[in-house]
Input
Amino acid sequence: MDVRTYNREVQLLLGEIQTNRGKDATALILACDKLLAYGNGMKDDALIGYAYFSKGETYYLLNDASNFYSQMLKCLIPLENAEEWEYVAMANNMLGIASLNRGNAPFALDYYIKAISICEDHSLSDIEWIIHLNLGSLYLNIEENQKSISHTEIAYRYVLAHRDMANYVENLTICLLGIGRAYLKLNQEAKFLEIEKKLRVECMPNLDDLEKIVIYCFFARVHEAINENEARDYWIEKVNEQTNTKMPIMDVFDDFYDYLGMLLSTEKYDDFFKSYTVLDDLTKRTSIKNLERKLLSLKIRYYRRVGQIEEYKIASVLFFELSEYMERENRLMVTNMLVMRNSYMELTQINKKVEEQNTFLQKRSETDPLTGMYNRLKLNEYSEEAFDRAFAHNSNVAVEILDIDYFKQFNDNYGHQAGDDCIKFIAEKLMELSQEGSIFCARYGGDEFVIIYEGLTESQVLEKANELRNSIYEADMEHRFSLSDNRVTISQGICYGSPDGDTSYFKYLQGADKMLYEVKQQSRNNIKLCLAEEL
Output
């Protein structure tokens, strides 16, 4: 939304909404209502959608589920009509978070797939990584740990590539903890110890005490998992020292929930109740019954363990009452979901996709909508299988990452439609290459693509990469704004080797990315290869 196109009164209202966001809910909602009156009078969908979105966001922060859903759903159609895709994606993302917090994972997945579709269609990578992070949390909650890692690693890679972002260390910490918690559940010791080391070195020195609490919880679980009781107890004591009512409950709940489960299983009951009491108080303030119910389930387990039958019965009755309340909340979500689908489906191609795919639980999207080739989700699945095959057969594998040289200049000068055509042109060349059974290609995002070569020698990989580069060069697609040539060219980074049991696709991808970076620094339209064993 271009604020400069509006009169001063509308600009002041927009400024007032921005100023009061997260601070003064009453003032913000009043400003939104005034903006709605203007928007309706001017028939301006951008103003109408933004006002509803801002009200919905405020009700979300106030934990007012009913008003949140009604306002957030009202914002979708006008925002789409105005092509304010960033807000449409954020609205669906927030609807997903709210659905998951209230215990409805299928609805949450449905909203997240909409948000990701929008981000992929409109190149909103700065929003898309957050949705993948949330999907990682969702899959972790439903014990789909490998899927959780796949999504969270997408977010992790984005954060690593944007060290200048606001709250970089905090975002890095969230990603690492999400991956680490999944590896703990998978009992992959080498992996979760690697995450522990990264948290110690890259995050801990740059966080305050309050932000370190969830790391302490993770460290305690790590040392319990490897039977280092003295170290475990050290971190438990650190948690006890820092746990307080100033903790942001929505940011720490899942980490503490797993931590409390560990304390129960190890019969550290005094420590359990120290943290439980604080978390219980914070959870009740949110009025999110699903969180209250999850926490109460831990207390019920405790009463059953120690044989406190009367307390067990009382807690079980309360658990039943919370479950009934949640059923009413879920009926509200069902009603709103049906309203949204019936109206939104008529006006958007995105909902058509959702109806065709239904939800991620039934069929996950594997193709990039612009090019028709595989996307990052399929890439993560395929890479895991490829590396398992390479390890099992002691064979070689190579990961290549490539991008279009000076694509921003191409896009800015020829226009976004021409930019899309250029990306589709590269994709066609890659799909021709992938017709060979040993080569897999996927669009990674923007103008970046990834290739996995299986069972080829180093010279064969370089030969195939050169064939691709030459075929694109010889196609002679005009690029007068390139600083290295007068036609479209690509740069390529490759990591090659024979994986061992502890070597991941992600390590190879990082190696390839490093090579691509060096090509960009030294020259364009070139290839650089490294050996995995040298990383």
Notes: The longest strand covers residues 397-404. The domain at 376-534 is CATH 3.30.70.270 (Alpha-Beta Plaits). Strands lie at 397-404, 439-445, 448-454, 490-497, 527-531.
